[in-house]
Design a protein that fits this description.
By secondary structure, the protein is mostly helical. The protein has 26 helices and no strands. It starts with a helix and ends with a helix.
């Protein structure tokens, strides 16, 4: 492995040594003089021996710089002997600037060979290059392309290219070439009758005319044509008068002056100016000259000459149209357009595919997010419903507890009220019993009472005294003793009922007498005396252990003359007791 690495390093060293740095230095120097001294640049390049150049990159650079130097020295070539290495290398491996230059000089050679279609194709490919830095070459390419447009009467493209080139020349500070581009664009606007655009360009041309005096002759001719084409009659007349004062002017201006005189309807002056043009001049062969000639004859009423001149103009136009068809660059443009459209279609298809994939992924992501949030929302909703139910149950439970507490409070209040009322009733009853106790004591002292009555009164006094003692002492044992005493007293029902009757006989003799007078038996009076002490019908029945005690009640009603449905017997007895 160590030996293999040494061999590889040695091979790389040998290959590296074959690259001639001296030639690179010479090429650098030739490139630096290309604009300022193209003849010196060409001499330096010619001094380099091609045999000393070994690698493809250096060969390509040499070929490209020599092609540039030949073009800058106005040496037109129609072969690719010099440029071919640059074409082979740079179009595949070159930088944007190297590709731009290669396409430009390839187009220049094709243009020299009058292969206008392929020349245009090279310029179109050069125009598509982005990220270039060689602005001068790009601007020169636009100018060369505009010449092809002009030859094929594609005037709009001719104007557009020259305006773009003038703008680029302005950016790099080359006003000389900027002025040339503007003048060409102005000429195209005049040919196409674009008055507003021509006026705008003319202002810019005149602005830099003082700094670029080399183009005054052509500028003067263009300005004359501009006024004659777009000026008012007075303006044209003033221009023609000023030009007539001049001693000499070229045939182009003479032709324009002839057209001007025609426009202001002075055909004789137009004819004189037209006839002053040198017949050996190249302008005599131009379509412009041939198209104006029949108009001058017609304006001067030389109709036969006008017809002959018009026929000659038609023949020249047909010949020119054939040349234009040959020179037309639309084939290359259409081919390039199709290539661009095909590339755009591929890019659009790829873009659509990627957009579709991204859209599907985005849609899946959105669906996933929606599904996630939907389920999350559903879970939250269920939790919220459960929480709501729980809170509802808690609220219901709290309400029940509050209701229970309220009921307990109400019950406690009722119990307290009941106890209070019971206490008040007890106090009232005790007061009544005290009165009764005193009455019984008085009655017990009477000698005429039977012994059994006295015995009943004595028992009642004992019960009342025990009750009073319990009330005074307010102690449980005493109260319990009193309760036990009362229970013992009422446990013997017959004895209690008899003693109760006898007590009422003593305390309410008229009441007992009223009952006896109506034929009630002792048993029946005992029954009514239970009502008199405050018991109700059901309580009387329970005490007497009579399930159907209403039978005795019916007998009593009949004896007392009480209607069965008139009143409650208990109410009747207590009312009767008060009355008697």
């Amino acid at each position: 492995m160590k030996y293999i690495l040494h061999i590889i390093a040695l091979c790389l060293l040998v290959v590296g040594c074959r690259h001639n740095t001296k030639i690179d230095q010479q090429l650098d120097e030739a490139e630096s003089l290309m604009l300022s001294a193209p003849d010196s640049s060409l001499r330096i390049i010619d001094s380099i021996s091609v045999a000393d150049i070994s690698d493809a990159k250096q060969t390509a650079r040499y070929a490209l710089l020599k092609s540039m130097a030949l073009d800058k020295n106005y040496i037109d070539t129609t072969t690719f002997d010099v440029l071919q290495p640059a074409i082979d290398y740079y179009l595949d491996h070159g930088t944007p600037d190297e590709k731009l230059r290669t396409y430009f000089y390839q187009g220049r050679i094709l243009q020299n060979r009058e292969d206008f279609d392929f020349a245009m194709q090279c310029y179109l490919k050069a125009k598509d290059i982005n990220d270039y830095t060689d602005t001068l070459t790009f601007a020169n390419m636009l100018v060369a392309q505009s010449n092809l447009y002009f030859r094929s009467y594609q005037i709009d493209d001719y104007i557009s290219n020259n305006l773009m080139a003038a703008n680029l020349f302005e950016k790099i500070g080359n006003e000389h070439y900027m002025q040339v581009g503007l003048i060409k664009a102005l000429d195209g606007c005049i040919i196409s009758n674009y008055k507003d655009k021509a006026d705008s360009i003319l202002l810019k041309v005149e602005d830099i005319a003082g700094r670029v005096p080399e183009h005054q002759d052509i500028l003067s001719s263009i300005k004359v044509m501009h006024i004659i084409k777009f000026g008012e009659e007075d303006e044209i007349r003033a221009l023609l008068d000023s030009l007539s004062i001049l001693n000499s002017y070229n045939d182009e201006i003479k032709l324009n002056m002839a057209l001007g005189y025609l426009n202001i309807k002075e055909p004789s002056k137009a004819k004189l100016k037209f006839e002053s043009i040198d017949t050996n001049s190249d302008i005599v062969k131009s379509i412009k000259y041939l198209s104006i000639r029949p108009k001058i004859f017609e304006a001067n009423r030389q109709y036969e000459d006008a017809l002959a001149a018009l026929n000659e103009c038609f023949i020249a136009c047909d010949t020119e149209n054939e040349n234009i068809s040959y020179q037309k660059t639309t084939v290359a443009e259409e081919r390039h357009k199709l290539e661009i459209e095909n590339l755009n279609q591929i890019q659009s298809r790829d873009k659509i595919i990627w957009i579709s994939i991204c859209s599907i992924l985005l849609l899946l992501l959105i669906v996933g997010i929606i599904s996630y949030y939907y389920h999350l929302g559903k879970i939250k909703h269920l939790l919220a419903e459960e929480e709501k139910s729980r809170l509802k149950l808690e609220n219901a439970s709290l309400q029940n507890q509050n209701s229970i507490l309220a009921l307990e409070k109400q019950t406690a209040e009722l119990e307290a009220e009941k106890k209070h009322l019971a206490g008040e009733n007890l106090k009232l009853r005790i007061s009544q019993l005290e009165t009764e106790n005193e009455q019984l004591k008085v009655l017990s002292e009477k000698d005429e009472l039977p012994d059994d009555v006295k015995e009943v009164i004595k028992e009642r006094i004992g019960i009342l005294n025990a009750l009073f003692a319990a009330n005074i002492l307010d102690k449980e044992p005493a109260a319990t003793a009193y309760v036990d005493l009362v229970k013992r007293e009422i446990s013997d029902k017959e004895k209690f009922m008899n003693s109760n009757r006898l007590a009422f006989k003593v305390s309410h003799p008229m009441f007992i007498k009223y009952l006896e007078d109506h034929g009630l038996t002792e048993y029946e009076i005992n029954y009514l005396c239970l009502y008199a002490i405050g018991l109700k019908g059901k309580e009387v029945g329970n005490y007497m252990e009579l399930r159907r005690h209403y039978n005795i009640s019916s007998d009593i009603r009949r004896k007392l003359g009480i209607d069965e449905h008139e009143t409650n017997i208990g109410i009747y007895v207590r009312k009767l007791l008060k009355q008697l």
